[in-house]
Amino acid sequence: xxxxxxxxxSLIILEGKNCTLQCNYTVSPFSNLRWYKxxxxxxxxxxxxxxxxxxxxxxxxxxxTLDADTKQSSLHITASQLSDSASYICVVRVYGQNFxxxxxxxxxxxx
Amino acid sequence: xxxxxxxxxxxxxxxGQQVTLSCSPISGHRSVSWYQQTPGQGLQFLFEYFSETQxxxxxxxxxxxxxxxxxxxxxxxxxxxxxxxxxLYLCASSPGGxxxxxxxxxxxxxxxxxxxx
Lengths: 111, 117
What we know:
The structure holds two protein chains of two kinds.
Chain A: E1 3-7, E2 10-14, E3 19-26, E4 30-38, E5 45-51, E6 56-59, E7 62-67, E8 72-77, E9 86-94, E10 99-101, E11 105-110
Chain B: E1 5-7, E2 10-13, E3 19-24, E4 31-38, E5 42-50, E6 53-57, E7 64-68, E8 74-78, E9 87-94, E10 107-108, E11 112-116
Parallel strand pairs in B: 2-11
Antiparallel strand pairs in B: 1-3, 3-8, 4-5, 4-9, 5-6, 7-8, 9-10, 9-11
């Protein structure tokens, strides 16, 4: 069964600190892996998209990594800001089909 | 460039009623997908339309249906509403083409919050 798991479920950090969110997946056949940021009451916004051959991709202070062998991905946030408080969702596309969504990690950045 | 627009933003209905939600994709985007988001189940795929044809469908009952018009705008309909249909319904658009195999990003609207009383 295609599945995406994320950890931790929630995370609290202080402004200016770094953090790393984890995503493990069992999806076949794999097409690509995406990270989305979703602010409360808003739709998700794409942060990164990685294919099988890419093992790192950055978008400003967000850096995603992908290990296709272990089927793991991480999203690293550098020098966190209050505006980073949101849910971060890991999504894997099944090749030729639709998406499988992770449950998300709820990040709270405190001043 | 305007983003994905969903209307209405909020909707309250009672059990047994039906509802129609609307989505206007980004100009030039031909693929529109619909998702249901609930606290317990997270984001779940409903269906995808491309060039007025349903190309992909998730595991939802037949009460959930949709359509796409020639201008790529899409509507989603839910009939015989149940309490469990209370959710945030999100629409996402992408340029289309071979999007099932591509790495195109999806652009989401802010959703319609549907509450069933």
